[in-house]
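pasting for the record
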Amino acid sequence: MSITSADICNAADALLGFVGFNRKLGKYIVRFSEDAFGMDVPDDSITPASEFVWVARDDQVMTLSRECLQILRDQNVNDRLNLGETLQLYLHRTDLPEIQAQRRRL
């Protein structure tokens, strides 16, 4: 079975949970409700995981960031995040450039 860029983009858009930057710890953390973050996470840093992995490069093009996906993978809750085989493969294929796409923010 071959995996296309569209498959990878769809998998990224299907990520679950929210990501917020914890000021006290100095790192990103994942929760599965927007209300589950403590006071050390500013409201403006809380982002759906499916948006967190996309980084704007200009007004129209976004890049599917392996660095941001790795932050999610490091949380060790792949099943809950819906970080499946397709995105794991994308993370491992560093010989290929990151995917760039025109997309609308959710």
